[in-house]
């Protein structure tokens, strides 16, 4: 499975998203599920799934699915 | 006495707009005039973390109109149920199709309605015994007395700058707003919260001086490796909304002290408008685990099982609180809005606890089975009832508190059903789905009496 698909699955699982959600275009606070509580669960889930650790600045800058994908790529996640 | 001191300022962090002093007063007075034209009855205010929500609340309070603060994200169905039960004069911030009997602007067409009791100022929702929300009735005097007492123990001056880190329809969020406006301080309205970049930009740009959080905020700040040294203006942090684990109290207190700042641990309930106790910052290190002494003007005592009260140290019983900030009572219907005070300044908290020799309260448990989900109180028996009524094919269920979450054990429950159950609870209670940890169990453990052994389940949660 490629990085984007795995990240998509991690989003769906961590935020308990419905099938109708356009995950790839999702932004922080667009939907009830991705509020500050959801953000904390999401960050922890991504770190577990990809065995990475985000810096404080990255956690608060992770404002969309796309941004988080770019961050993972920068961290060399596979 | 007014909630709004002459020097109070409101900053919109999103637009950068500032309403200060006479301008803020004029903005409030303009809305007050509009409210005066509405028919008799309580006002419902759909409340978000934005400037219009703050102005509506303050205008209602200042003009003596009883106002119920409701989560703007609340299910439409729940809102319509409340409208039917309480027949508000208007739903401020109402969106979409209005209910029958209301104009397009959500103003009640029928001019006749129950006039709320003249002392009644603010209504805050809490979960009722049937899972339907009911309101805590707070008098104008209780709200003002509590805001004044909080401002006193926290040493709030006109120089303080507080962000809205909590929802305003939540009693703690409301009290942060009240205690700062009352002292002519600045409130920065910022909707993204501590997990968003804009929040921290606002801290720097507006030189925010304090931060209020419930336990999960402190889990977030720990996750963010929060370092007060990076934010030279931010020198006060406060914590309430449930007991924070003691290692985090120590960690954050040490961090704040090292940066020349301070931390306050507090205790309250919506029924007390909401604050009852605060540990003075300089005593926190030696009173870890305590909720603090009663606020000025308030007093605690401990009620034993035989009904007698004591203030003898280290005796455990139900915590009773007496003070000017205690609610008038609850309201479950329109008629009850007109009722006078039914409590006489006494609040039976439902918490179990003890006082130490210095009068500091230590909470040890709950009389009823109550859990906290991200700072919000949830009746665990109600929650089990909701699952049974959810329409899901679900076996015997038992809910126990687990820190910031609730763990629900369900007999022989497939993964899909567990997910659906968590989602159903999240939607019904409008709390994040990660607050409900639904787990499978072969058989719930029972006591010799045949009742569910909740204590053993708590040990496994």
What does it look like?
The complex is a heterodimer of chains A (78) and B (461). Chain A has 4 helices and no strands. With 78 residues, chain A is mostly helical. By secondary structure, chain B is α/β, with parallel strands linked by helices. Chain B has 2 domains: 356 residues, ANL, N-terminal domain (Rossmann fold, 3-Layer(aba) Sandwich), CATH 3.40.50; 91 residues, 2-Layer Sandwich (GMP Synthetase, Chain A, domain 3). In chain B, the strands form 6 sheets. Chain B has a 6-stranded mixed β-sheet with strand order 5-3-4-6-7-17, sandwiched between helices. In chain B, helix 1 packs across helix 2 and helix 4 packs across helix 5. Chain B is globular. The model of chain B has no long low-confidence stretch (mean pLDDT 94). The interface between A and B is medium-sized, with 21 and 26 residues.
Name the descriptors:
heterodimer, A: 78 residues, mainly alpha, Non-ribosomal Peptide Synthetase Peptidyl Carrier Protein, Chain A, 56% helix, 0% strand, B: 461 residues, alpha/beta, Rossmann fold, GMP Synthetase, Chain A, domain 3, six-stranded mixed beta sheet, five-stranded antiparallel beta sheet, 11 helices, 24 strands, 28% helix
């Amino acid at each position: 499975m490629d990085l984007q698909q795995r990240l998509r699955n991690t989003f769906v699982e961590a935020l308990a998203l419905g099938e109708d959600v356009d995950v790839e275009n999702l932004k922080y606070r667009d939907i009830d599920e991705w509020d500050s509580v959801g953000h904390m669960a999401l960050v922890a889930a991504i770190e577990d799934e990809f065995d990475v650790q985000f810096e404080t600045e990255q956690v608060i800058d992770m404002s969309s699915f796309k941004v988080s994908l770019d961050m993972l790529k920068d961290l060399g996640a596979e | 006495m007014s909630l709004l001191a002459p020097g109070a300022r409101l900053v919109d962090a999103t637009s950068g707009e500032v309403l200060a002093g006479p301008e803020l007063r004029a903005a409030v007075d303009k809305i007050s005039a509009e409210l005066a034209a509405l028919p008799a009855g309580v006002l419902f205010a759909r409340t978000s973390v934005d400037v219009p929500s703050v102005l509506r609340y303050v205008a209602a309070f200042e003009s003596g109109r009883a106002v119920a603060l409701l989560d703007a994200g609340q299910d439409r169905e729940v809102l319509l149920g409340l409208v039917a039960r309480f027949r508000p004069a208007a739903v401020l911030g109402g969106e979409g199709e209005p209910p029958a009997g209301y104009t397009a602007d959500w103003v009640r067409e029928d001019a006749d309605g129950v006039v709320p009791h003249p002392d009644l100022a603010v209504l805050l929702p809490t979960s009722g015994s049937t899972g339907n929300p009911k309101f805590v009735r707070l008098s104008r005097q209780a709200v003002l007395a509590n805001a004044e007492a909080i401002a006193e123990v926290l040493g709030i001056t006109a120089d303080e700058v507080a962000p809205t880190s909590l929802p305003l329809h939540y009693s703690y969020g409301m009290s942060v707003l009240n205690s700062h406006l009352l002292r002519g301080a600045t409130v920065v309205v910022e909707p993204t919260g501590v997990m968003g970049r804009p929040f921290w930009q606002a801290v720097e740009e507006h030189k925010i001086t304090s931060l209020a959080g419930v336990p999960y905020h402190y889990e977030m700040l720990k996750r963010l490796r929060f370092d007060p040294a990076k934010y030279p203006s931010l020198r006060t942090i406060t914590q309430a909304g449930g007991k924070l684990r003691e290692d985090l109290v120590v960690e954050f207190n040490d961090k704040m002290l090292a940066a020349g700042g301070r931390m306050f641990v507090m205790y309250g309930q919506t029924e007390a408008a909401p604050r009852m106790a605060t540990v003075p910052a300089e005593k926190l290190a030696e009173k870890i685990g305590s909720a603090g002494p009663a606020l000025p003007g308030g007093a605690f005592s401990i009620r034993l099982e035989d009904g007698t009260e004591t203030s003898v140290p280290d005796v455990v019983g139900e915590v009773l609180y007496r003070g000017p900030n205690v609610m008038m009572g609850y309201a479950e219907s329109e008629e009850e809005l007109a009722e006078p005070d039914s409590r006489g300044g006494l609040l039976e908290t439902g918490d179990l606890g003890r006082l130490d020799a210095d009068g500091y309260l230590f909470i040890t448990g709950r009389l009823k089975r109550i859990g906290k989900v991200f700072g919000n109180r949830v009746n665990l028996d109600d929650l089990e009832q909701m699952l049974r009524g959810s329409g899901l094919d679900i076996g015997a269920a038992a809910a126990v508190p687990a820190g910031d979450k609730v763990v629900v054990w369900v007999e022989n429950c497939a993964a899909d059903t567990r997910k659906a159950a968590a989602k159903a609870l999240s939607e019904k209670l409008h709390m994040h789905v990660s607050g409900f940890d639904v787990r499978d169990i072969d058989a719930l453990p029972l006591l010799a009496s045949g009742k569910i052994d909740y204590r053993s389940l708590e040990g496994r949660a």
